[in-house]
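## retry 2 of 3
previous attempt timed out at serialization; input unchanged, resubmitting
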Amino acid sequence: MNRRCQHCQEPLEGRVDKIFCDAQCRGLFHYHHKKERKVTLFDSIDKQLKLNRRLLKHFNRSGKSTIRATKLEEAGFNPAYFTHYWKNNRGQVYLFCYDVGFLATMENGRRKFLLIDWQDYMAPKRAKHHPL
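## retry succeeded, writing output
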């Protein structure tokens, strides 16, 4: 049986289940395979969520800060993409991208986002289990 590397087609030596001649060929094969793959809806949503989180983290280094909406959106932030929400006692709804949240506000006629980090007290209350 003449086995060959899936990337460079060089003959393989060693283990019978070996499919690449080295780590470089394995990496290049998967890189090219991923580039050729059609981008799915899941991929585009996941990419935007990760970008949103990265931008929120970047602009919220103190744990709570305010930023102009245009500055965040010009960097690629899209507020329509979030993972979950939290409603405070005043009825304000914070939208979260994983562990960083934002609240759309208006100050002096300008749209702004109040950025916060997730806190333990924001977790939903669990119902107590009562044995029968």
